Amino acid sequence: MRVEQMLAWKDAVQKNTYRSYFENTVRTKKELEQTFSMLCDVALMVEDVAAAGCFLNFLAEQAETVSLSLSNRAYLQNTREIFESVEHWLPIQEMESSETKAVEFPKNVFPPAVESYANGIAIALKVNRAPVYTAMLAACAATLQRKAVTIFCEDETQTIPLNLYVLLVGESGASKSPIFKTVFAPLQQCIAQATPAYQQALSAYKAKRDIHEERLRHRKKQLQSDDCPETEAEILAAQMQMDAILPPGNPNILSDDTTTEALTVKMFQCRETAAIVSDEPSTLHNILGQYTKDGNANNILYLKAFGGDRYAYNRRNAGGEIVLEHPLITMCIGTQYRTFDRLTQSDALLDNGLIQRFLWCHLESYKVDSSRIPFRDAAVKSAYFHMIERFYQMPDANQVIPWSEDACQMVHQALDTMWQVQKVHKTFLNKAEITVAKLAALLHMMWQDVGVHSEYIDKDTAIRAVQLLEYFYETMFTERDFAGEELQKLEQKLYEKTVAIGKPRISRREILRTVCSNRTEKCELLLDTLLAERKIAVLNGKRKDSFEVLISPFWHL
Question: Is this model's pTM higher than 0.85 or not?
Answer without folding.
Answer: no
